[in-house]
Amino acid sequence: MVVVVDMSEPQGDSRRLPRVVLVLLLLVTAAAPFAGSGPVVFALTALSLGYAALSGPIVRPHWTLVAFLLWTALTVAWSVLPSETLRGVLVTAGSALAVGSLVRQLGRSGVYRALTTTSKILVVASWALYLAWPVAGREQGAYHNGAFTGVFVQRNVAAFVLAIAVLTFTYLAVAREPGHRRASSCAWAGIAGFTLLVTESGTGIAVTAVCLAVLLVLSGARILTRSVKGALLWLVAAGVAGLAVVAQSGVDLVSSILGRDSTLTGRTVIWAAIDPYVAARPWRGYGWAALWTEDAITTRAMWAVARFRFEHAHNAYLDVRAQAGVVGLALICLFCARVVAVALRRLVSSRDSLPVIWPLCVVLLLLLYGISEQSFTSYFGWLVLVLAGALVGTTGEAAPVGAAPSSDAAAAADDPAGAPRSGAATDEACQPRRRPVGASARSRRARGDGRCDPPHGAPGAVN
């Protein structure tokens, strides 16, 4: 009897609870900031980490992520608000450890189900609030008055979450992951995309368009030869890098394209107010999560220079430099570079490269978004970045709840290509064996020449 088990989607209800935990974590962080969001996020992070520890051993993060977390912990020593930095470090590290363990329990398809569930809830709730209670669901300021905000505090926050939703639904429509219908994914991608347009966020619309184009190009490039794929990736990388340079330096051009004033709606004023303080502490920063509160004297001084309050630096790179210095920025960029490098390697060398397209494109979205928004320095952006890092190195299989990490899983986490070192055939092992001179077809079938037999106990094996 032949039994085929799809290990990419967990069986039964054993994965329902970890999926609920991940959905709650994503929902709360996506909707933040809101009144009391700090304590709520801290408590939910503690509960998620506790559940991950009780349901199975905590998965060891990649060393690049560990290095960044350790550096943020060191900033407590010189933080302008040590208590806030300590709380920020606990949330950052705890959420990273919890998400890494939840990814292992859920598998790739389970993670995407949690992401789509989160996106659907937020989109439906936002439209309900927008239509039923316009004062709460629409922008009330002088700038872009009436623009869509939904359940979010501001339209740019809504646009950031919606951009990731559009990218996720589009990927699922292309990849056809188990448990996700293509028609449904296409429909939700359209709904999320329309909602993004209603937010009137120029940054969100522009970055999403670029990342969608990259996603579709990479999806179609899978059928090309290795050399052609390599050339195409270089071309895409050059185009994206050029756009990033223009966005970073050509303020006048960007403002005209996005329909904003010469200050990018106050962003250049914010950057000018922050720059002198960053230059005063270039390497160490002022402490992770210690700024952007009225309790910090440094922040109040920045507000005085800008002559208005701002809740973050409106530039993720500048934000990290202000909080953790150049060292912190280099470490988090190293983690992002590792995700991109692993994804690109698999895109060029592996025939099964589709699973790494979402992590690659979502990291690209975070990096581009970081030019003018919080991006990966927000609660939600940080979780998405950690998810991308965990998914790029996973085989897609869900581990049993409570099971210790196997040697294959550990090897996959350490392997730059993210592939298991045993229990599955590699491309080299699956190459047809050279036919011996004079060998008949029957003798080859008897030896198994020309095919790759699945190992005992593997999906598709006859046991």
TrEMBL record:
Signal peptide: none
Positions of transmembrane segments: 20-51, 63-80, 86-103, 115-136, 156-175, 205-224, 231-251, 324-344, 356-372, 378-396
Keywords noted in UniProt: Ligase, Membrane, Transmembrane, Transmembrane helix
A Pfam family the protein falls into: Wzy_C
Subcellular location field: Membrane
Domain O-antigen ligase-related: 191-332
Disordered: annotated segments: 407-463
Compositional bias of kind Low complexity: 407-425
A single GO cellular-component term on record: membrane
GO molecular function: ligase activity
Protein name listed in UniProt: O-antigen ligase
Membrane topology: Multi-pass membrane protein
Principal localisation: membrane
